[in-house]
């Protein structure tokens, strides 16, 4: 069990009790107001991240190489979405653990991330198969001598 699930309610309750002890009902109002401000700041940040992610294609990242270099175990899904500015393309069935999401860049390199309870556990970086590099000249230009 995550310690945040326990400490957050205990800390909020302790803040309200301390507010009552040191300031009476005015202290309680101040503590509840501070807690509401904290919640609203986090909610605003979440909405800003999701709004930015909604404006870009699903599963797109500018550079998969840079993404995989920045990833660290324990990062939250919201932190990864904020870094990529895109929602990941789901690779696992809905409401199942672990959750798998993939981000792909324009060169078809991709990073597949595995999340357990919203925390990044591992990721896999894959480059496209380059066995057939295709044309080496730009269309309309003569081949190199």
Characteristics of this structure?
2 domains, alpha+beta, 46% helix, 4-stranded antiparallel β-sheet, elongated
What does this structure look like?
The structure is a single chain. The protein has helices spanning 4-54, 64-70, 77-84, and strands at 89-90, 99-104, 110-116, 119-126. The chain is an alpha+beta fold. It is elongated, with a radius of gyration of 23 Å. The termini are far apart. The chain folds into two domains: 1-55; 57-126, 2-Layer Sandwich (Beta-lactamase Inhibitory Protein, Chain:B, domain 1). It has a four-stranded antiparallel sheet, covered by helices on one side.
Give the low-pLDDT segments: none
**Backbone CA Rg:** 23 Å
Compute the average pLDDT.
86
Please trace the helix and strand order, writing H or E for each element: HHHEEEE
Taken together, the total number of domains comes to 2
- What is the 3D form? elongated
Largest sheet: 4 strands, antiparallel
Instruction: Using the coordinates shown, work out and report the CATH topology of the largest domain.
Output: Beta-lactamase Inhibitory Protein, Chain:B, domain 1
Q: What is the CATH architecture term of the largest domain?
A: 2-Layer Sandwich
Indicate the proportion of strand residues. Answer: 15-25%
Secondary structure category: alpha+beta
Q: Helical residue percent?
A: 40-55%
Helical segment tally?
A: 3
């Amino acid at each position: 069990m995550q310690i945040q699930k326990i400490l957050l309610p205990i800390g909020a309750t302790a803040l309200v009790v301390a507010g009552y002890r040191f300031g009476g009902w005015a202290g309680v109002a101040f503590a509840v107001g501070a807690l509401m401000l904290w919640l609203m700041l986090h909610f605003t940040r979440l909405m800003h991240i999701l709004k930015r992610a909604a404006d870009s294609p699903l599963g797109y990242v500018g550079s998969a190489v840079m993404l995989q270099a920045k990833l660290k175990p324990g990062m939250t899904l919201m932190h990864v979405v904020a870094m990529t500015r895109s929602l990941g393309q789901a690779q696992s069935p809905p409401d199942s653990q672990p959750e798998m999401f993939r981000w792909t860049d324009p060169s078809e390199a991709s990073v597949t991330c595995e999340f357990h309870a919203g925390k990044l556990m591992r990721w896999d970086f894959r480059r496209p198969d380059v066995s057939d590099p295709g044309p080496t000249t730009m269309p309309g230009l003569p081949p190199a001598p």
